[in-house]
Amino acid sequence: MKKKWFPHGKWPQFYVMLHYYTIVSFIGLLITGLALYLPFLHVALIRYLSILYDIHILLGILFFLSLFSPLILRLPRTKHIRIIDWFMPIAFGMAIVLAGMPLWQITWFSADWRETAFSWHGNLAYFLGFWFIVHGVFKAFGFKYPETQATKKMDPERRRFIKWGVTGLVGGVLAMTPFSQLFLQQGNRLGGTPGVNTSVATGVHDFPEYFTVTNSYPKVRIDKYQLQVDGLVAAPASLSFEQLAALPVTTETKDFQCVTGWAVPNVRWEGIHLKELVQLVKPAPDAAFVTFYSADGVYTESLTLQEALEADVLLAFKMDGQSLRVEQGYPLRLVVPRMYGYKSIKWVNRVEFARTRVQGYWEQRGYPAEAAF
Ligand SMILES: Nc1nc2c(c(=O)[nH]1)N[C@H]1C(S)=C(S)[C@@H](COP(=O)(O)O)O[C@H]1N2
Ligand SMILES: [Mo]
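ok -> structure tokens follow
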């Protein structure tokens, strides 16, 4: 007889089907989740991230339904499933799904909650992923679980599902509250380390937060720096910082507004207007969008060509008369004064003219692409 890789013993067909849904959705979640999270994958897949993101959400819903369907459907009452095999995915799955909510519906939650939720969504998924592997190996090779209270077989009672689901729910809520940041490494957090104060010169604004979506601020060596300007253009270019700074400079004083509520009035920016780059590389007539990339390898932003050519949109290299500090996007950041701060991508190292829009980092997570306030 052919060896079955996932023998389900005397399981009713219905259990087997549910179990497959759980397996397939969870593996899909791990793969898409890693692609969304790990920088080297993220960078390679940048154009497909919004699709991967949608798939991830759909799989999350499927995973959730497969775990909790016994609450709605009447499962056959047979003692076929071990307590731990049901407890682990339900309690941890619930916490992971819950911690995923602020990453999905980002406008419902504060930035603080999102940061913590982001870390726990990942940490708990790694943990449950590890348990799935152990569980899979045990089943595939027919190892026996030790006989304990937790490995007893049980009836699929609603009461238990609810109890475990609530355990996961409470765990998930605790994990998301900023309190749990005490247990997280600082470097693991999403979006910024408030109060980094690396020698702010007098007369230079200090912003309330210096965000990054990776666990550090990229350190760009100015002698190695190149701004790539390419895409649908007649003459792609790669500019050193010197060449860039030799272009005509525009100066403006504008307010800076973050979507999370803080604002900094009267910031003086000096930088290059996008029309200088347009003259240089000559975009094709159908290049309707501009995509900006960051040296952090993760963040992207986009504008329509028309928006990019607004008089006050700059690729800035100086703020309040000083060159940008590392945490502010040294050596070059975009400044879009009429839109929320998330449009103002830092550490810009590539400007691409394109026919279609590439979803920006926060836009993949639900913020509008037209971020005017
Ligand atoms: N590369 C990169 N650019 C970024 C961000 C980021 O996390 N990474 N955060 C954005 C957000 S949400 C805001 S409000 C501003 C904040 O600018 P600041 O970090 O200089 O205060 O930068 C934007 N540009
Ligand atoms: Mo922001």
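The first strand starts at residue 81 and ends at 82.
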